[in-house]
Amino acid sequence: MFELEKSFRFEAGHSLPQSNSKCRVPHGHSFLLVVKIRAEKLQEEGQERNMVVDFNVISSVVRPLINEYFDHCWLNDTLQTDAPTVEFIARWIYNRLKPELPDLYSITLHETDTQKVTFYES
Ligand SMILES: [Zn+2]
Fold it and tell me: Which GO terms describe its molecular function (predicted)?
C-alpha cells in the first residue's frame, strides 16, 4: 500500500455565529491542508509510470479550488454556510476533490498548530 501526502497553505477568515466561544467573532486562520492519496498499485504506463499519481497532478486539481474558494476568502460566503467549521470545510474539500482524484483517501485540515480535523469515508 502506498500513501502520498501533499500539503497546501492558505489564509482565510470565518465566524461561527452559533458558537458560544470566541469563534463567533470574525477572525482568520493560516490553514494547512493535507491531501492524502492511498493506492495499492503503481501506474504501469505513460508519464506517471511507477507513480501512484504525479504530485503535480494533485497540485493542478487542488490549487484552483484553493484560489477560488479559500485563499484570502471569507468562508461563510464562499462556502455558503453560516457554520464553516473546520469539520465542515474538510468534508467540503473531500467531496469536491474525490471525483478528480479517485484515490483520494482523506483530507486533514489544520486550523491552528494544535487543532486539526481529518475527514475520510469509513
Ligand atoms: Zn476559526
Answer: 6-carboxytetrahydropterin synthase activity; metal ion binding
